[in-house]
């Protein structure tokens, strides 16, 4: 079971998160998401537990609990559908020359 953990303090360490979840069962992996440029925690992460019953027990036991001075949010992570993912260039249009006909825009022609 893949579990989402939110509202983590920025000082949270993966080893501490693992210890909290291991109180409920076996943990396969722990990943705190960090900013690519700064390396700073984004305040959320994911924990993977192989047994669904242990995962549900961890969710029930840890959701709303204090972790490093913050009440964390813990729930089952749902996979994002492929259609919802957006790339860098998502073809939204825009730019200066958006006006058409007599509606204006940056490049107004001979006005």
TrEMBL record:
The keyword Ion transport is assigned to this record: no
Gene3D superfamilies recorded: 3.30.70.330
Biased composition (Basic and acidic residues): 77-87
SUPFAM superfamilies for this protein: RNA-binding domain, RBD
PANTHER family: HETEROGENEOUS NUCLEAR RIBONUCLEOPROTEIN 87F-RELATED (PTHR48027)
Domain of life: Bacteria
Composition-biased stretches (Gly residues): 92-111
The keyword RNA-binding appears for this protein: yes
Protein name: RNA-binding protein
Organism: Flavobacterium rhizophilum
Keywords noted in UniProt: RNA-binding
Pfam family, one: RRM_1
Region (Disordered): 75-111
RRM domain location: 1-79
InterPro entries: Nucleotide-bd_a/b_plait_sf, RBD_domain_sf, RRM2_NsCP33-like, RRM_dom, SLIRP/GR-RBP-like
